[in-house]
Model the fold of this input.
Amino acid sequence: MEAAFFDLDKTIIARASMAAYVPALRRAGYLNAPMAARAAWGQLLFRFFGADEDRMDKARRTALKLAAGWEQDGLRRLARDHLTELIEPIVYDEALDLLEHHRSEGRILVLVSAAPIEIVEPMANHLQMQKAIATTPLTDVNGCYTGEVDYYAHGPDKAEAIRKLAEEEGIDLDSSWAYSDSATDLPMLESVGHPVTVNPDRELRLQAARREWPILEFENPVALGDRIPIDRNWIVATVITFAVFFGAVSMIRRVRSRA
Done:
């Protein structure tokens, strides 16, 4: 059995996934204005100057500290409910083509990201990927974040998780593929027989040229709904509910006015 392992940020989507959720977190009261401003500035640096992994690593850990006390189920619902609004429009069209290619070849599709599992897992399901490897925060007995991490999907730990998954699922890594934009994912890329770089940072671009790895440039974010059917039954149900509600209110008003 073969698999295709995909990093998330700047490989499948055009922005940092955690930063994409900042507006929703702000509206929901999780972040105050200064926190949101710092996140927006970090996103600008990430977007226009590339990822400084030391800073990104620090930002992820800081975000987890800030999340201490938040309910895990609440964040999971927020990530799922705002997925189409915030993440769907920034998925690379080229990445969707690759996913479809590997799907047609019968490979297991695995999303691998340092972002929290609460964000990564809904994205993997949305993209019809079978597995997700992501950072797993610790929670207390009440289901609230402690600010600490149970598993951090970063650097060599990503490669270790991939090897563990391969053993569990019977995946032949020598025949499998991996895609990433960051030099910190070199262990992940080295763990498979077909490493591919996507929008690589400076160090990874140098490594790819030296090792004669393929270099792909993704440039076309696309509305995911144009490529993958999205279950919007909840939207229809909501519209019908409101229609029935306001229809009933209107009828009651007409009856009262006649009386």
Notes: DSSP finds twelve helices and nine strands in the chain. The longest strand covers residues 108-116. The radius of gyration is 21 Å. Residues 22 and 37 are 9 Å apart (CA to CA).
